[in-house]
Write a structure and sequence with these properties.
The structure holds 2 protein chains of 2 kinds.
Chain A lengths: L1 H23 L8 E2 L1 H6 L6 H7 L1 H9 L6 E2 L11 E6 L8 E5 L5 E3 L3 E4 L9 E9 L2 E6 L1 E3 L8 E6 L3 H4 L1 H4 L14 H5 L3 H6 L22 E2 L6 E3 L12 H5 L4 H4 L17 H6 L9 H4 L22 H4 L8 E3 L2 H11 L1
Helix pairs in contact in A: 3-4
Chain B lengths: L2 E2 L3 H35 L14 E2 L3 H25 L10 H25 L10 H6 L19 H25 L6 H28 L9 H4 L2 E2 L1 H7 L1 H9 L1
Antiparallel strand pairs in B: 2-3
Helix pairs in contact in B: 1-6, 2-3, 3-5, 5-6, 8-9
Bound molecules: protoporphyrin IX containing FE.
The site of protoporphyrin IX containing FE has 23 residues of chain B, from helix 2, helix 5, helix 6 and helix 7.
């Protein structure tokens, strides 16, 4: 009996020494430079649910952002998706295939409007199989587009190629290990990269925090040139309009995350630092009083509201660009502005 | 200073591990349970009559029982929280990650103490003897409905095998766990090894312990008392552990 007590008290001592020795300078991480990019190439995706087991606060913040809602699952609508429809491959001109599908078997809904799915035997990977239309009762299912394929006088459902995945449902087109764990829409790993090794080792060097993550979807917005080269056109999806022309960008001191948050919303529900526009600017420009409609103008004729507010912060004012308010796009016809933009784009 | 990346071989092994961890956990728990149910139905308990007799000889000292009890309790809690970590489902337990992690660490310390203790106190009884060969020849009689009692010391050959199995995996799981608790102290590759080995030893132990618990309870009536009050009946000892019985009779 006494021997046993001796042994166990010795063990307690040893264990205590090990634990205290380790805890002593815990903040001193091992001196080791880790190549984050290479480590992530060998990591697998584990999915948002896995990340938020440890980062629950970030998860709660992220869920409030509009990023979390760009692609929703079918069960978030009270629409009945359980219906068989015969769809035609609208992405090919010659001999389009046709197939009866159950709309319940689709991946989900993009921006509350496109019902996106994969159809076996069709020419493309992803299709906009149907659309949701907002009605008084909620959302109603309609065809993505209609066309009489078999000339029987009845309009058939045409499934259209879905080319918006890269930004509107990155989880559907991600490549690599563990993609089955990804949600179709934006997930933690869309911006941070695959995180299995980070989650297993808790090493921060095994996950990236890429300040440029935003630009992959909120593109720098290069306007296209008209055929005769005389003017530029900014189409609907014009990205972060004129950001590269702003003093903020050229100063090199300010980036998207100087003003925006990555996974938090303010009182107004937008991903902006500060409770509103005024407060946001005031954090750096104490004495100036900006008018948002003027300095961050919107295309007044944009039908779909797809275009981000101007981010040139005064470098390219709306009145100066020579837009034709009659047309949907924003035409840039002023030679001085064109020269400025062209020299900046290169 | 050169940059560290993950060893590709290790990374591949790790990815396989991640891919199948859910399946492996399922097989090693449900699979073993099904095996046990099969054994119980087809072969049934060994020497039922020994369960009804009055326990009179001390088999396990209070010290042995305490060590075993702490090891058993902490292991169950570690297994539940550990599986939740591995499957990234801590929320299912109704706990935050931090709470579950703290619980895991506290019981890991208890498991370490009680395991090292058990390893020490049972070492002498777990060294294989020549007569253990005869036990293995008939697999302790566990695979037949006939009542056979092959030779056995304080622990039979199967228990000795489990002693070494649990010693090996306990030490492995303790060391890898200690590393994972201090990620800042180790290199990325070492941590990844630790993560994989921690998981594999956990799975080995869980499967082994479920089988062990069955053998110490339902499969061998009269045995479970040893870890509760510590006593067994004379008949039990004479049948299950004849060599040990002779030894204590001589004292
Ligand atoms: C989960 C519930 C458990 C039950 C019901 C259980 C039951 C038992 C019983 C009845 C004995 C005594 C056998 C005898 O007197 O011949 C025993 C011994 C032992 N137990 Fe457990 N035990 C459990 C968990 C564990 C765990 C988690 C470990 C270690 C990881 C462990 C390791 C041992 C060892 C090494 C022995 C001595 C050798 C042997 O009997 O196999 N047990 N256990």
């Amino acid at each position: 009996m006494r021997k046993h007590f001796l042994i166990s008290s010795l063990l307690v001592l040893v264990l205590g020494l090990i634990l205290s020795g380790c805890a002593g300078n815990e903040t001193n991480t091992k001196k080791e430079k880790i190549d984050t990019k290479e480590v992530q190439q060998m990591s697998a995706y584990i999915g948002t649910d896995a990340c938020i087991t440890c980062h629950s606060e970030t998860g709660q913040g992220f869920a409030m952002t509009s990023h979390a809602g760009i692609f929703k699952s079918l069960d978030q609508y009270n629409t009945d998706f359980k219906q068989m429809v015969n769809v035609w491959d609208g992405a090919t001109k010659e001999n389009p295939a046709t197939k009866a599908i159950n709309l319940e078997d689709t991946y989900g809904v993009m921006m509350d409007s496109y019902v996106v799915g994969n159809i076996d035997g069709f020419s493309q990977e992803l299709y906009r199989v149907a659309s949701l239309e907002k009605s008084e009762q909620g959302y109603e299912l309609v065809a993505a587009s209609l066309k009489d394929y078999n000339s029987d006088g009845i309009q058939d459902w045409s499934a259209k190629a879905y080319s918006c995945a890269e930004c509107h449902s990155p989880g559907l087109v991600a490549q690599g290990l563990g993609i089955k764990n990804l949600e179709p829409g934006i997930s933690c790993e869309t911006c941070h990269g695959p995180g299995s090794i980070h989650a297993q080792t808790k090493r921060k060097e095994a996950i990236s925090i890429n300040q440029n993550a935003c630009i992959t979807c909120h593109t720098l917005g290069q306007p296209s040139e008209t055929e005769d080269g005389s003017s530029l056109i900014a189409e609907n999806h014009y990205g972060t309009r004129n950001w590269f022309a702003s003093d903020h960008y050229t100063s090199g001191y300010v980036n998207c995350l100087s003003c925006h948050t990555s996974h938090e919303v303010n009182k107004e529900g937008s991903m902006l630092k500060g409770d509103n526009f005024t407060e946001n600017c005031a954090s750096c420009h104490k004495d100036e009083n900006f008018d948002i409609e003027e300095i961050m103008w919107k295309n007044p004729t944009d039908l779909h509201d797809h275009v981000t507010r101007d981010h040139s912060f005064g470098a390219i004012p709306y009145e100066k660009i020579g837009d034709n308010p009659e047309t949907k796009e924003v035409e840039i016809t002023d030679p001085k502005i064109i020269k400025k933009l062209k020299s900046l784009i290169k | 200073m050169t940059y560290t990346s993950t060893n590709p071989l290790l990374a591949n092994l790790n990815n396989l591990y991640l891919e199948y961890i859910g399946l492996i956990v399922l097989l090693s728990t449900v699979g073993v349970l099904l095996g046990i149910a099969g054994h119980f139905v087809i072969i049934g308990p060994n020497a039922k009559r020994l369960g009804k007799l009055k326990p009179e000889i001390v088999r396990l000292t209070p010290f042995e029982r305490t060590a075993h009890f702490v090891r058993m309790l902490s292991f169950i809690i570690l297994a539940v929280t550990g599986i939740a970590f591995a499957l990234f489902h801590v929320g299912t337990l109704g706990l935050s990650y931090v709470a579950a992690y703290k619980i895991h660490l506290v019981f890991a310390a208890l498991f370490t103490l009680s395991s090292l203790n058990s390893i020490f106190i049972w070492l002498k009884d777990s060294i294989f003897k020549t007569y253990d060969r005869d036990w293995f020849k008939v697999m302790g009689g566990y695979l037949t409905r006939k009542e056979i009692h092959p030779p056995s010391g304080r622990f039979n050959a199967g228990q000795k095998a489990f002693y070494w199995f649990s010693t090996f995996f306990s030490i492995l799981i303790i060391f890898s766990g200690l590393m994972l608790a201090y990620p800042g102290k180790f290199g990325l590759n070492s941590l990844l090894w630790a993560s994989v080995l921690h998981g594999i030893s956990a799975i080995g132990l869980i499967a082994g312990v479920i089988a062990h618990a069955y053998l110490g309870s339902l499969a061998n009536p009269g045995t479970i008392g040893t870890i509760i009050h510590g006593k067994v009946s004379r008949e039990w000892a004479k049948n299950h552990h004849p060599q040990w019985f002779e030894e204590i009779e001589q004292k």
